[in-house]
Design a protein that fits this description.
By secondary structure, the protein is α/β, with parallel strands linked by helices. It has a single domain, classed as Glycoside hydrolase/deacetylase (TIM Barrel, Alpha-Beta Barrel). 30% of the residues lie in helices and 26% in strands. It contains 6 helices and 13 strands. Strands 5, 6, 7, 10, 11, 12 and 13 form a 7-stranded mixed β-sheet that branches. A 4-stranded mixed β-sheet has the order 1-4-9-8, covered by helices on one side. The chain has a two-stranded antiparallel ribbon with strand order 2-3. Helix 1 (61-69) packs parallel to helix 3. The protein is globular and about 45 Å long.
Length: 223
Amino acid sequence: MMTKKWLVIVSLPLFALACGAETAIVRSAPGAPPDNTVYGVRTTDRVAFLTIDDGVTRDPGMVKALRDAKVKATFFLTAQYVRADPGFFARLARETGSVVENHTLTHPNLEGMSRDAQRHEICGASDDFAKDFGRRPTLLRPPYGARDETTADAAAECGITHIVNWSAEIAGGKTTFAAGNRLKPGDIVLAHFRRTFAADVAEFVRQTERANLTPALLEDYLD
């Protein structure tokens, strides 16, 4: 069994906190507000992670797209889109080995919102998903990737351990990289529940193969 070694990449300012030979965690500088936002996972494993946002579009073919690609994804769902058919997303996660996480109740820009308002958006979605899927989310994808100093504290009160942004994005079957022109080990890739779902999953597989990487489940590397 392969032993995982990783380094979580978070927002600046940063300093490395050594945690023994196996793992080192990068956290905010001393005295800075707590910030557990990650954009990627620095790991010795040649893996990349697919995350799929919102839940706007539902299509039974999504199960086949993920199964055929042998990809387990993290679904950052928005509660207002799930309510129409939570069973669809429960089946999609169950049949593909994927995991449902938190993308708020109504998809607002959290930056600048009060702590109570942020807690309502985050905890409300987590409460819904605990009932719908039998598991309380531990990861949050803030809408638009936007968050402020209040978000980490509000999210922690809702049981969130990491705020997850991204280092590459796939839309319409095409990839945009934050840096460089190919995926790197530990990259977190953003996609959405859209009509191009199958093409976007196929593009993720193409990009992982191009970079000699293997798709992996983000929750296996963040705890």
